[in-house]
Design a protein that fits this description.
The chain has 238 residues and is an alpha/beta fold. The protein has 2 domains: 7-15 and 181-237, no CATH class; 25-173, 3-Layer(aba) Sandwich (Rossmann fold). Helix content is 49%, strand content 11%. The protein contains 10 helices and 5 strands; from the N terminus they run αααβαββαβαβαααα. A 5-stranded parallel sheet has the order 2-1-3-4-5, sandwiched between helices. β3, α5 (106-117) and β4 form a beta-alpha-beta unit. The two termini are 18 Å apart. The mean pLDDT is 95.
Length: 238
């Protein structure tokens, strides 16, 4: 088994810097929350019969998490769509949020254009690309952020921006206090589980040792079902 306290080995085994990206999660959430609070949202966006989040891959995971979190109190359905086409119910009273890290995801762009044709209320979340250009051209509310990493590493942005939108529209109770508490907890945990903490005192490294050589099964229910899914995909991809 490798020495989990060898920091030079970490650098060799993590060429994409995923460890650093994970450490950035609390700050991502803070930045995204400030970003969404500054967005100018039309008043009629609060009067919707449903919310569809169109996205793929890492851009859709944030939508999955928000859907699970919002379901117990949101008065309208929230659906995450990973397809070129939208469900038949989407119309003028539906809010369609297109989320694409690059702004060039063809499935998301197709769904975004279809939503416009149906007269749906539109919003775009992206770092740029064609989606940003279309949103500006069509006069659609646009949330942009700058981040240089794998799309799946931008979860703090994709999740928090979506949570902020549904919160500002009154579809869920104001999540600001809960989000701040979660950020504080994550920041505190960093002092216990970061790579510089020796294995003997580091529960994350201890868990890694227990998992080594085994096939982990991750399960969850309710609001934690998509958290379990995210954890599974992190095992798969990292």
């Amino acid at each position: 088994m490798i020495n989990l306290d060898d920091l030079d080995l970490f650098k060799k085994l993590d060429p994409d810097g995923m460890l650093a990206r994970i450490a950035e999660l609390p700050q991502q959430c803070r930045d995204a929350w400030a970003n969404v609070q500054a967005l100018d949202l039309p008043e009629d966006y609060a009067q919707v019969d449903g919310v569809v989040i169109a996205g793929m891959g890492g851009s859709a995971i944030g939508g999955d998490l928000v859907r699970c979190l919002a379901e117990p109190e949101c008065p309208v359905p929230i659906l995450v769509s990973r397809d070129y086409t939208l469900p038949a119910f989407v119309g003028p009273k539906t809010l369609v949020i297109a989320s694409s890290y690059s702004g060039n995801t063809e499935e998301t762009l197709s769904a975004f254009a279809q939503a416009r044709e149906r007269g749906a209320k539109l919003l775009a979340i992206t770092t740029g690309g064609k989606l940003a250009r279309q949103a500006r051209e069509w006069g659609v509310p646009l949330l942009t952020f700058s981040y240089q990493a794998q799309p799946r590493a931008a979860l703090g942005h994709s999740f928090t921006l979506l949570l902020g939108v549904v919160g500002r529209l009154g579809l869920v109770s104001d999540p600001s206090a809960d989000l701040e508490e979660a950020i504080v907890v994550m920041e505190a945990l960093q002092g216990e589980i970061n790579e510089t903490v020796p294995t003997a005192q580091n529960p994350a490294k201890q868990l890694a040792r227990k998992l080594y050589g085994h096939l982990p099964f991750v399960y969850g229910a309710g609001a934690l079902s998509e958290v379990a899914h995210r954890w599974k995909t992190q095992f798969n991809e990292n």
